[in-house]
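pls design
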């Protein structure tokens, strides 16, 4: 539940809960982000020993075991262990937080905000190797130092991340895999020497076997796992591992790094063709198969009894002579409540596709027009074009004169205001009213210019000419074209037993009424 300013109420209460700070209590955090720091005498044990000596000199009591971290903490989400430790210390009411240096605690902007807030609530931050102590009564200069060094630490962390990424990419492009060896290979090399990758004598065999089984396109991932176990594989196998092995091209001697293909120095286990065949086999047997039916009238018809959709289904029946009888049916998907409150299938009839086609043909027949009637209607529309054009031009001229008159009013009012004949308020009110009237008239001019006899005659031709002998042409069209005509002419189609009840769109409803009455001029 949200409270004021979108904050979660329960969370806000938890934040505002007062925790009693216990004087003299402390925690110690040691962090290492690279092996170079360890070699320079700044390892985790060195930081921990120095922090314990510092706490002893100040008479502080460490109430939690020192936290030792090896992490690069540029991203806030990467500091789960650090955040959990700090949360526990705050919940216990610890008063003092010991770090070797400021950059050991500040590696992202979230940490900077957190430590500054902790100081405001009575905690004290100690950076014992830099002789820096920060608390709520520290001078402004210390806050400046905290902020500057915090931002500098964040920038340094990003630089380290960028240098590391560039170094790994350079190594990958040179053919040296920069990460741990994948399944089927192992890292070799002694401490202090450049490490390389070579095929694993056990896992390498199973890597090749996984590719071969997948390339046969006969086995799913689950079956591959069972076959490997049956062949004596003792390596723990998971679906995720099998898929990663199949999709990885590493065993061919090639791999991708940041979107670029690299030729590795390691020994290939399989050919490129086998890799492609394995991926094809995986995609063939390990994804859902959807059979798509091309029903032209799908989504077009509703049930008149329950309002649900009419769907299509093909049923096959094997005959005694071995042949197959196949029929496509249209039926309702809905359920109806029976008098005893139990659900039963809707009682609307199932229609064979041929019966449905005939019923839909009856929908088209009422809007089929004879050529002489269409020509007669178009002639009547064209005959009135000259008169309507003159009336439109007259109305346009009248509206444009009104617009010009309003422009004159505005100019005169401005002159009167400058000469002091009217005051500022009266001028603004009158000008605003005239501007509104002018905008309305300008919109009317646009409407008159874009409408008229010509546009109506074009629309009439586009609607009427396709309906000429439409009933005769309908059944010679392919089903998709028939469905397109039905969607254009009808806004709704409902099946009631063996009939299709249409709701025609407005213009085609006019054609149906005219065909029924025979009196087109009155309509």
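designed seq:
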């Amino acid at each position: 539940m949200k409270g004021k300013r979108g904050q979660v109420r329960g969370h806000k209460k938890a934040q505002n809960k007062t925790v009693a700070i216990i004087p003299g209590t402390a925690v110690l955090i040691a962090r290492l982000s690279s092996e170079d720091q360890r070699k320079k005498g700044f390892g985790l044990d060195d930081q921990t020993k120095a922090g314990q000596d510092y706490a002893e000199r100040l008479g502080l009591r460490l109430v939690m075991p020192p936290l030792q971290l090896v992490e690069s903490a540029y991203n806030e989400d990467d500091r789960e262990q650090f955040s959990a430790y700090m949360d526990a210390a705050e919940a216990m009411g610890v008063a003092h937080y010991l770090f070797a240096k400021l950059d050991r605690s500040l590696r992202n902007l979230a940490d900077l905000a957190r430590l500054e807030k902790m100081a405001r609530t009575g905690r004290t931050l100690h950076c014992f190797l830099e002789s820096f102590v920060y608390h709520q009564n520290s001078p402004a200069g210390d806050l400046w130092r905290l902020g500057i060094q915090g931002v500098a630490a964040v920038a340094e962390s990003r630089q380290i991340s960028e240098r590391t990424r560039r170094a790994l990419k350079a190594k990958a492009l040179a053919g040296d895999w920069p990460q741990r060896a994948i399944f089927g290979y192992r890292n070799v090399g002694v401490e202090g020497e450049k490490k390389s990758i070579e095929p694993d004598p056990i896992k390498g065999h199973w890597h090749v076997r996984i590719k071969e089984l997948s390339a046969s396109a006969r086995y799913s991932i689950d079956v591959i796992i069972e076959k490997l176990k049956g062949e004596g594989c003792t390596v723990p196998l998971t679906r995720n591992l099998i898929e990663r092995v199949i999709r990885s091209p590493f065993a061919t001697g090639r791999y991708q790094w940041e979107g670029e293909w690299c030729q590795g120095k390691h020994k290939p286990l399989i050919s490129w063709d086998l890799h492609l065949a394995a991926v094809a086999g995986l995609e063939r047997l390990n994804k859902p198969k959807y059979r798509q039916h091309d029903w032209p009238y799908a989504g077009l018809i509703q049930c008149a009894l329950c309002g649900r959709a009419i769907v299509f289904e093909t049923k096959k029946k094997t005959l005694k002579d071995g042949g197959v009888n196949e029929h496509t049916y249209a039926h309702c998907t809905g359920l109806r409540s029976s008098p005893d409150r139990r659900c039963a299938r809707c009682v609307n009839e199932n229609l064979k596709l041929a019966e449905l086609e005939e019923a839909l043909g009856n929908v088209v027949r009422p809007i089929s027009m004879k050529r002489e009637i269409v020509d007669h209607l178009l002639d009547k529309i064209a005959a009135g074009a000259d008169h309507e054009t003159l009336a439109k031009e007259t109305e346009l001229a009248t509206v444009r004169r009104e617009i010009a008159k309003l422009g004159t009013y505005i100019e005169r009012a401005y002159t009167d205001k400058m000469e002091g004949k009217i005051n500022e308020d009266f001028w603004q009110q009158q000008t605003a009213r005239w501007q509104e009237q002018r905008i309305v008239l300008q919109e009317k001019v646009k409407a008159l210019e874009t409408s008229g006899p010509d546009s109506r005659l074009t629309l009439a031709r586009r609607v009427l000419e396709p309906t000429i002998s439409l009933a005769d042409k309908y059944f010679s069209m392919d089903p998709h074209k028939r469905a397109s005509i039905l969607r254009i002419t009808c806004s709704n189609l409902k099946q009631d037993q063996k009939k299709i009840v249409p709701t025609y769109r407005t213009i085609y409803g006019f054609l149906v009424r005219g065909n029924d009455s025979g009196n087109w001029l009155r309509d």
